[in-house]
Amino acid sequence: TCQKTGTFTQNWNKIGTLGSTGGGGGGNTFNISGNGLYISPDSCGAVKANQTFAAAGYNQTYIDANYPGIGAVTTDNIDWAAFQKAINIAAATGLPVWCYGNYYVNKPITIAKTALNIVVYGNNCLISTTNSNRFSVFYRPTPTDNTEANTMVESKYVFKNVNLSGSSTQCGFDVGPGYGQWFEGCHLTGLAK
Question: N or C: which end of the chain has fewer CB within 10 A?
Answer without folding.
Answer: N
